[in-house]
Each structure stands twice: as C-alpha cells, then as structure tokens.
Design brief:
Number of helices: 10
Number of strands: 0
Oligomer: single chain
Largest sheet: none
Order of helices and strands: HHHHHHHHHH
CATH architecture of one domain: Orthogonal Bundle
Structural class: mainly alpha
CATH class of one domain: Mainly Alpha
C-alpha cells in the first residue's frame, strides 16, 4: 500500500498542528530525548515537511517556547480587568495563570523546565515573557501600596523585589499543583494571594485579603 496522503490545509494551520505535536513531545519527553520522527508522526505529517516549515529541531523548539509564552502572558492580561482594585486584578491574574498552566501542562513543562535547562538562547525566550509578567505585578503592588498610604510618589523599585518573589512563588506553586493534580487553579491562587497579602503587610497596613465568592 502507498503512503496515506494527508488532507491539504492552510500552511498556518498545518504549522500549528506541528507545534501542538512538538509541545506534547517536548513537554513529556524533554528536549534532548524528543525526536523529529516522533513529532512528525504525532502531527500526521512527514519529517521532511516539519523541516520545510520549521527548519531544525532548535528552531522548532524556539517556536514552541514563543507560542506557549505568548499564550500564557495573553491569558493573564486578558483576565485582568482595568478599573478594579489592585488586589482584585492580581487575584484575577493569578487565577488565570494557574488555570492556564493546569490546562496546558505540556506547554508549562516546556516553559518552566525544558527551556530553562537547555541553553541560554532558549532561557532568554522564557525570561522575556517572565519579565513582562513581573512588570505587570510590580505595577499592581505599587498601585495598591500607593493607595494604602495615599502616596502617589511611592517608587516602584521598592516593590519590584516583592513582585519577583511573587512570580517565583507562582511558578513553583504551579509546578507543584500540576504534579499534585488535586489543587484547583482557584485554590492555588487563593493560597498565594493570602500568603502574598500577609507578606505585604508593611505596605498594605496588614489588611486581610479574602477571595471573592466562586464565580467572582
């Protein structure tokens, strides 16, 4: 029997199909163990076609990192509604972060583990996304602190370290939650929010933080 011909589809759609397969293989097997043969087979295309579209294993992995990083950052940005109190914006952003990493465990593995352990070029791609999220959290904490102290000139650098710590804690908690498989995105977000708000007591006058009711 001859080879089964794959259904023709637009290049962009075919490329996303290849990236879907690559993220799954890279996320589950690791960058070094993953093979282009496996990726092509899972995508339902020939290996030469993968090379034609994405050039090399390195370029394919970079494309996976960029796509997954953009999707995660977009999920967080989309969830945050301007005009709400800073703590509520942070809550919405964290809940979106944990929901996205739980729904895309292979993508999170690519970002959190694989990209960071296989070379500076790959790590730099993730660091760019992380810096965007840290800047976002820094601004939210700074706004909340200014509101609490009614001081519009409170410098952001005073809370930048707290934002770094909060993002680092979110990354670690997401990795643990994905392993435990028993922690919901809401539970993870509530745990981190309460921990963070207690830790920000000096800036926030130790105001307790209570998560909104389910659905909020």
């Amino acid at each position: 029997m001859g080879a089964v011909r794959t259904k023709r589809m637009p290049r962009a759609m075919r490329e996303q199909q290849m990236l879907d397969a690559a993220v799954r293989i890279f996320g589950r097997r690791g960058y070094m163990a993953a093979s282009m043969d496996e990726i092509a087979e899972l995508a339902g295309v020939s290996k030469p076609l993968v090379y034609l579209y994405l050039n090399s294993k390195e370029d394919l992995f970079t494309a996976c990192i960029r796509r997954e990083a953009a999707a995660l950052a977009d999920a967080v940005r989309t969830a945050v509604r301007p005009g709400l109190p800073a703590d509520r914006q942070l809550w919405d952003g964290l809940r979106a972060f944990f929901a996205h990493t739980a729904e895309h465990p292979d993508g999170w593995s690519v970002l959190h583990i694989q990209a960071r352990t296989h070379g500076e070029t790959f790590a730099a791609e993730v660091n760019a996304m992380r810096a965007e999220i840290v800047a976002f959290v820094t601004e939210l904490i700074a706004v909340a602190a200014r509101e609490a102290h009614r001081d519009p000139d409170l410098p952001e650098h005073e809370v930048a370290g707290l934002a770094e710590a909060l993002v680092g804690a979110a990354e670690s908690l997401a990795a643990w939650a994905n392993t435990a498989r028993t922690v919901t995105a809401r539970q993870a977000a509530a745990t981190l929010m309460n921990f963070a708000w207690a830790g920000l007591g000096n800036l926030m006058d130790a105001r307790p933080w209570t998560p909104p009711q389910p659905g909020g």
